[in-house]
Design a protein that fits this description.
Elements lengths: L3 H19 L3 H21 L3 H38 L1
Helix pairs in contact: 1-2, 2-3
Length: 88
Amino acid sequence: MSDVPLVLALALVAVAGTATVLVRDPVRQSFLLSLLGLALALVFLLFQAPDVALSQLAVGTALTPLMVLLSVRKVRRRARDERREEHE
């Protein structure tokens, strides 16, 4: 098996992981976290671990970023409501 796809996938993991850490907006971080999960699923698939790849696809690409987005939404809504109450 050629190592080129694996090296490219690992490079994508490194770039996505670094970008996730460097971005300061939580919404953008969640999208980059989803991309990181997708890249990791690809790496697991290339290592011939389809069961781990499917788990990573479900959890790392969909559920974790969704929980982050919902948490950010709740925190922002709560802060907006508190500001609104202060002005009343």
